[in-house]
């Protein structure tokens, strides 16, 4: 496994396993399979309702805790200093661990400054090894990062072949914050798996389109956490370190960027209203 050194010196695997939309009753099985394949970074969230399954799989795996990198996220309904602090303790309990490797603010809504202060306190108390944010696009990221003490180590944002986030990447680099992709495979809903440019490059390397998409992000300096509940696909998504895309191939893939979201925009008022509903 390759690692990226975060801004506080903590090392994070560049490839992990995500469990968004993984039903609670199969999460333990899925995470156990991912760990058996070799994944050592797991990405969950309070809002996914499956932290218990992640914790159980890690505990039962017998793998030393310090060889596994656990990420979870504080949901909007737990925003604010007091509620966020209590939610961190609840996540620790569900994950059956004394510390979380990376805690992120899930969404840039409600009292996220209060949430961040709770995270800074928990970081100083040794409950968190690194703290960061998610879905903070450049304007909000620059704001928060200027008015906090412990600078965010990671920003997890939608990033894939069709929305490459080059502007966000440049600002994250400027402020020494690692760029992590959510939906690195476009949630399986984009034309990634049939696109002729991706398919041609995949055939040249005897790889699949999914592997090309992940390799492209890794070579672009982006951390990836693909999700699959199928063991063969988990394995496929893990096998992306035995080939390299050429500069020409990287250029062809860079040209696929539409610079807009394949799902929704955090700046769309209707979307924000929907988040307010989910926050209740
Ligand atoms: P993803 O891009 O990882 O796509 C997953 C889907 O792609 C699968 O459900 C399946 O349909 C398909 N797929 C996976 N591997 C495949 C393969 N090898 N071949 C063909 N199809 C394949 O989408 P995601 O799960 O949304 O994102 C990854 C992780 O990012 C999540 O599990 C979660 O941990 C995190 N995430 C975070 C946020 C956030 O707001 N912070 C939002 C979404 C996801």
Shape: globular
Cα radius of gyration in angstroms: 18 Å
Q: Reading side by side through the largest sheet, how are the strands ordered? A: 3-4-5-6-7-8-9-10
What's the order of the H and E elements?
EEEHEHEHEHEHEHEHHEHHH
Cofactors and ligands: nicotinamide-adenine-dinucleotide
Taking pLDDT < 50 over at least 5 consecutive residues as the criterion, the unreliable ranges are: none
Distance between the termini: 40 Å
Main sheet: strands, sense, barrel: 8 strands, parallel
**Annotation field: number of helices:** 11
- Structural class of the helices, strands and pairings? alpha/beta
Average pLDDT works out at 97
Helix content: 40-55%
State which percent range the strand residues make up: 5-15%
Number of strands: 10
Features:
8-stranded parallel beta sheet, alpha/beta, binds nicotinamide-adenine-dinucleotide, two-stranded antiparallel sheet, 42% helix
Explain the overall architecture.
The protein has 280 residues and is an alpha/beta fold. It has helices spanning 24-37, 51-61, 81-94, 112-124, 138-146, 166-174, 196-205, 209-219, 231-238, 247-254, 269-278, and strands spanning 3-5, 11-13, 17-18, 41-43, 69-74, 102-105, 131-134, 154-158, 178-182, 223-224. Helix 3 (81-94) crosses helix 4 (112-124) and helix 7 crosses helix 8 (209-219). The longest helix is centred in the N-terminal third of the chain and has 14 residues, at 24-37. It binds nicotinamide-adenine-dinucleotide. Nicotinamide-adenine-dinucleotide is lined by residues 18-20, 43, 106, 134-135, 156, 182-188, 193, 210, 225-228, 233, 236-237.
